[in-house]
Write a structure and sequence with these properties.
0% of the residues lie in helices and 58% in strands. The strands form two sheets. The chain has a three-stranded antiparallel beta sheet, with no helix packed on it. A hairpin with a 3-residue loop joins strand 3 and strand 4.
């Protein structure tokens, strides 16, 4: 099985999503791209297994950033 998949947005790498979670550190778990007709924005969410409180409460942190105008 492939360990990860690289995410490309508008020709630029936005990170890799881990498919085979055998790493022991923060992992990119989702990428969302939004388009408003003029610009792109990207939202990345990372899971840190060491920061989990319980098995039912995973520590997932998301951040959003603009990618600029669509070409």
């Amino acid at each position: 099985m492939t360990d990860s998949v690289e995410v490309l947005v508008n020709g630029k790498s936005s990170g890799s999503i881990v498919l085979n979670p055998c790493e022991n550190g923060p992992m990119l778990v989702s990428v969302e791209v939004a388009h408003d007709g003029v610009e792109l924005a990207i939202r990345k969410c990372t899971h840190d297994p060491f920061a989990d409180h319980t098995a039912d409460q995973q520590n997932v942190v998301c951040r959003e950033e603009p990618l600029g105008k669509v070409q």
